[in-house]
Design goal:
This protein is an alpha+beta fold. It has nine helices and eleven strands. It has two domains: about 5-175, Ribosomal Protein S5, domain 2, CATH 3.30.230; about 180-320, 2-Layer Sandwich (Alpha-Beta Plaits). Helix 1 (about 70-85) packs parallel to helix 2 (about 110-125), helix 2 crosses helix 3 (about 130-145) and helix 3 packs antiparallel against helix 4 (about 150-160). It starts with a strand and ends in a 7-residue tail after the last strand. It binds (3R)-3-hydroxy-3-methyl-5-(phosphonooxy)pentanoic acid. (3R)-3-hydroxy-3-methyl-5-(phosphonooxy)pentanoic acid binds near residues 106, 150 and 153.
Length: about 325
Amino acid sequence: MRCQSADASSKLILLGEHAVVYGKTALAVPLLKPRASARVVPAPAGRPAGVDLKDLEVRWDGDARDVPPAAAPFARLIALAVERFPAVPACGWELVVRSRIPSGCGLGSGAATAAAALRAVCARFAVSCAPALLSELVYEVEKLHHGTPSGIDNTVIAMGRPILYARGAAPRFLTRPAAPCFLVVGHTGRSHRTSEVVADVARARGLNPVRHDAIFDAIGRLSGPGAEAFQAARWIDLGQLMDRNQELLKDLGVSSAELDALVGAARRAGALGAKLSGAGRGGCMAALAADAVSGQRVEKALKAAGAAETFLTEVGDHAAS
Ligand code: PMV
């Protein structure tokens, strides 16, 4: 049996997390790195498909009665693939998954590993799976991680293009800017559970809906101008919008001392804007850099300020590559 590999990018929300849960528009981009990859390899003919999660050293042999928690999303994904695509057999193959994307930190690691795995399965069994269907299937897997995710992670990662995203509407694809968009990601080292942070925000909104809805409205208003700035490579304007978004996320109570420290360090090192990215309360922040040299300076400053991990990366665009 042939082996087949595929990969998927990580993602960043440049503007609009949390507000997107309440129907506002967010701006999200795929990143050139870090990435996740998956490979379909042969397994004994009668054995149900399983998964080998190399980074976690977790292996599941396909026995539905005994699924380790880390393998549960892949068990769901395999079941979905077998159910939706008659060409995908239930037995005789295994997924091998590797990821450089830290999990639980706002970079979409769950959606990326699921997208890479589904792409590898579809390629191996010659199934055609358009990005919209890939996104739908990844969303089904994402529900295991997050309960009721807004759908932004699966959409931007499956489509592989910068998007404006609002719940229940088709994503709006952004045109590629004329200059590369350099981003520096700093990981606080503390992972978060998106579902818990989202539930906390929902509780706080329940106590004070007027205040919270005003914050969500203000966040939602940033994405349109952000998309314009992004497409026109007006990085100074985009950076200012990111800074404004960070203030609003702080008002929402989802930043943290570690995130604030990294955001401050990035700005002092010359970042054009910086904010937490994803659910917050830990996880990652992202800083916009004018160019690669400035990005290196920001990355150095993030390391000095205690970032557990950093990535100097660029916005990717699957459609353009
Ligand atoms: O899972 P994360 O950390 O990438 O956060 C996702 C963004 C939220 O808006 C907080 C939740 C969602 O479902 O959109």
